[in-house]
Design goal:
heterodimer, A: two-stranded antiparallel sheet, globular, B: alpha/beta, Rossmann fold
């Protein structure tokens, strides 16, 4: 799954969370969207739900089981104080390339 | 395998091939639950409402794949009971090997952690659930020789209390059962005076039964117990 597709899947995940009432307003996902850090869109449990939902969507898209490991993401983007959608998309691209 | 009756509660139990885990699984199957169990070995339960998976809970990847498969097959998990654990040796700290230490930590702490982590994700998505972990009254007795076992069971209490706070807003309660001496395959292998020694230290001087453990699980799982979270019920001992 390339970075662009990962961002699309993230958008679908946010849209799903809006439909289920987890977030109040629509989020337009781009590479700069902050997922973890200051100016959060999601609270901590919302973030857990988002990551779980992303794992499931990636698995459905690729037909393989994938598990997102946050501590590995920091290795993808050293010195990142926040996790942005762009950084997560890059991680997903590498994760799905490796297997 | 699909559990098709949406009205039947779904309970995941670890360590169901023998001992108390098996007895508890049979008890809840008898009470009309769907039960998804696991152990390192093959299933010892034959029941249309039972789904067994061979899983080493100390293996993170195996747990992740198992719980994901449960989500695909069962759709949801209402209750989690973490029965699996090891009680394979007692020795003084000075004589405890690193491998013995790690065997306790890997199964009792890491294994329980992995299962709770993965199942809690499903429960968070469903905004519902009850998680029950198993500790031991040994954490109160400070018995010589039980350092590693007791520390692993103390860790379970702490993890469960933290998890209880983390997921409370999602209608998930997390509680702990701390049994006293039970007659299990593991305790049967101990020295002949072990049972008498343990019973002497307990307030209620008889072994706890699996049925009594099931009773407390039922209490924690009841809708009327949703306000009870982060609690430990000790069995057979005034703490």
């Amino acid at each position: 799954m390339n970075k662009e597709k990962a961002l699309i899947v993230m958008q679908e995940s946010f849209d799903g969370m809006q439909r289920s009432g987890l977030i109040n307003s629509k989020v337009a996902v781009d590479e700069t969207t902050v997922l973890l850090g200051s100016d959060l869109i999601l609270d901590s449990l919302g973030f857990v739900t988002f990551i779980s939902d992303m794992e499931e969507r990636i698995t459905v898209e690729t037909g393989q089981d994938y598990f997102i490991v946050l501590s590995d993401i920091h290795g993808v983007a050293d010195n990142e104080a926040t996790l942005t959608a762009g950084v997560l998309a890059l991680y997903i691209e590498k994760l799905t390339e490796e297997q | 395998m699909k559990f098709n009756d949406k009205n039947k509660p779904v309970m995941v139990i670890t360590g169901t091939s023998k001992g108390v885990g098996r007895e508890v699984a049979l008890d809840f199957l008898g009470n009309g639950y769907y039960v998804a169990g696991c152990s390192r070995g093959v299933s010892t339960i034959q029941d249309d409402s039972y789904l067994h998976s061979q899983v080493d809970i100390s293996d993170e990847k195996q747990v992740q794949i198992w719980i994901r498969s449960l989500k695909k097959n069962l759709g949801r998990v209402d209750f989690l009971v973490c029965m699996a654990g090891v009680l394979n040796s007692f020795s003084h700290v000075a004589l405890t090997s690193g491998s013995s230490l790690m065997s306790f930590l890997n199964v009792n702490i890491a294994g329980t952690f992995y299962v709770c982590r993965e199942v809690s994700k499903l429960m968070i998505a469903e905004r519902n659930g009850s998680i029950i972990t198993i500790s031991s009254i040994m954490t109160h007795l400070h018995e010589p020789g039980a350092a590693v076992y007791s520390l692993s069971k103390s860790a379970i209490v702490e993890m469960t209390k933290v998890l209880a706070k983390e997921v409370a807003a999602m209608n998930i309660n997390c509680n702990v059962i701390a049994p006293s001496y039970m007659i299990t395959d593991a305790t049967k292998t101990f020295k002949s005076d072990y049972a008498a020694t343990m019973l002497e230290k307990q307030t209620i001087k008889r072994p706890v039964t699996a049925k009594e453990v099931s009773n407390i699980i039922s209490f924690f799982c009841a809708p009327e117990s949703k306000c009870i979270t982060g609690q430990v019920i000790s069995m057979g001992l005034v703490c």
